[in-house]
Amino acid sequence: MRLAELSARSGVSTATIKYYLREGLLPPGRRVTATQAEYDEAHLRRLRLVRALIQVGRIPVNSAREVLAALQDDDLDRNSRLGIATWALPHGPAPEQADPATDAARRTADALLDRLGWTYGGASGEKPTAPAYGMLVSAIAALSRLGYPCAVANLEPYARAVERIAVTDLDLVESYETPDEQVEAAVALTVLYEPVLLSLRRLAEAEESRRRFDGT
Amino acid sequence: MRLAELSARSGVSTATIKYYLREGLLPPGRRVTATQAEYDEAHLRRLRLVRALIQVGRIPVNSAREVLAALQDDDLDRNSRLGIATWALPHGPAPEQADPATDAARRTADALLDRLGWTYGGASGEKPTAPAYGMLVSAIAALSRLGYPCAVANLEPYARAVERIAVTDLDLVESYETPDEQVEAAVALTVLYEPVLLSLRRLAEAEESRRRFDGT
């Protein structure tokens, strides 16, 4: 297919596609004349992945290029490929380094992950390095600074609920066939389901409040 | 206590406290000299609430003033007070009005809430008006525009998980004694637990990915 059709089928503008080609995020098409190239279904799939990384995941272009390189590295297993893609996602501010609230929050996060038997997003026995670990530490520290102490017992119900959510997420990722599609789905669904989750929680809170307090 | 002590005990700067006083968000202290006023524990509690609304909830000053007025309205029940506070929280962009993806998303959201037996955050029988309903519709529409159709069956596991989370949230809100403290907790915990929830979900996804795909 020509550039115009690739644009129409992907919903990505021709200007944006040309930018991705220049940045090496999309392999060049097969040249048919001096000014025209031909693209195939593999381009369409890769374009969807690039869009998921950059437009949905808001991953910087340089990081997106690294994610795409990792995808083509046959030495990496599937867990690592998904991890490299989702770890490149923005994770909010890193926790402050030498602050008593942060130190306490780190101990709470570690005790929680120990109780859950989770491995910090790394392979078994690895040190805590997932970016989401830093995001969790920051969030716990913010709660305690504002006078809402947040112990392992407070956090565990949230963790148990997201364990079920993660099974749903990974089932959906596995329903895609190719590694490219699975990574695309992992990035897009991780990001796009966040507002779903937050809005449903607020509706659930409103419902629970109505059940408890309506007319009281 | 004097202004300096109110600032030290609340962790809010004197400049910010003076701003809240000028804006009528905090009632004036009892004047003791021409230049000094005396504040009490009620001021401290109210200051924590104002900070929760404005600094944590990022609620605009005008909306915060309405929330505080609603709190003092004895005709309102507890459900309405909590609702007014959490509905004032920012909810992301409202869905587009006349767009096929939005119309379809609205039907999906309605079918989901019907199946759950939720009432859109309103009193029984009310029309869908909670701001989080618009946020949910936008999120479903964004998924479908990017080629990730999202049916009631996809959404239900997320909704069931947040139902459990909402019970935990409201238990925590109810553990506070006064109406002011409960509203403060509802706003602060709704907002502050969002990064906790999102970071735990990413860690849970990484853990689930490791269990399924490590070494494959």
Order of helices and strands of chain A: HHEEHHHHHHH
**First and last CA, distance of chain A:** 65 Å
Helix content of chain A: 55-70%
Oligomeric state of the chains? homodimer
Shape of chain A: elongated
| Residue-averaged pLDDT of chain A | 86
Number of domains of chain A: 2
Q: Per DSSP, what share of the residues of chain A sits in E-state strands of 2 or more residues?
A: under 5%
Largest interface: A-B, 86 and 86 residues
Number of helices of chain A: 9
Helical/strand content category of chain A: mainly alpha
Report on the architecture of this protein.
Two copies of one chain form a homodimer. Chain A is built from nine helices and two strands; from the N terminus they run ααββααααααα. With 216 residues, chain A is mainly α. The first copy, chain A, folds into two domains: 74 residues, Orthogonal Bundle (Multidrug-efflux Transporter Regulator, Chain: A, Domain 2), CATH 1.10.1660; 127 residues, no CATH class. The first copy, chain A, has a two-stranded antiparallel ribbon. In chain A, a hairpin with a 5-residue loop joins strand 1 and strand 2. The mean pLDDT of chain A is 86. Chains A and B meet through helix 3, helix 5, helix 7, helix 8 and helix 9 of A and helix 3, helix 5, helix 7, helix 8 and helix 9 of B.
